[in-house]
């Protein structure tokens, strides 16, 4: 089973939706049997690489409200994030152009670390207030998941994987994506938005049944119970 996920690092519902999907895969017993591929999307491609503007100011400007109103509106998102174990800190967040971060995720994929990079970038932005348009910040995050500093710096100084990012965005337009997160399962079913875990569970079960895919065996009990193995028993 393959699930393609269009998302943007500046989208608060994308991190929530990612966690809801992961919980659903875990709960249904299909962990390790579902290939999740993240696709790039940009909600605001024209935003500057870096900004010192507060998120509240940016939201107020965008929606024509006061900063207090903007702050109040983020409380609901924070509560929703907390439901899936995420600790959003809008006080630290600043607007970001995510194109370079999307490129970095693609690059990390050449080292089989795209999923780790995706998670680290999301956590850094929404929980730590990291500036994802800043090269030094991106290098630090890449080092944390095991990538080489010089290799990453050299990569970010070029435009490698820019075409791949733009291709993802164009594919989203072609299939009618109007907002993210957007999930496509086996190029057959689509789910829009950060739906509750139960919605993803139902979708995963349905597709698994169609494919004849059985859930993996889930271990129960403690791991320190008495056991005999390799010709001897632990006493």
UniProtKB/TrEMBL annotation:
It comes from the Bacteria. GO terms for molecular function: isomerase activity; oxidoreductase activity. InterPro entries: DSBA-like_thioredoxin_dom (IPR001853), Thioredoxin-like_sf (IPR036249). Pfam families: DSBA. Keywords: Isomerase. Residues 3-204 form the DSBA-like thioredoxin domain. This is DsbA family dithiol-disulfide isomerase.
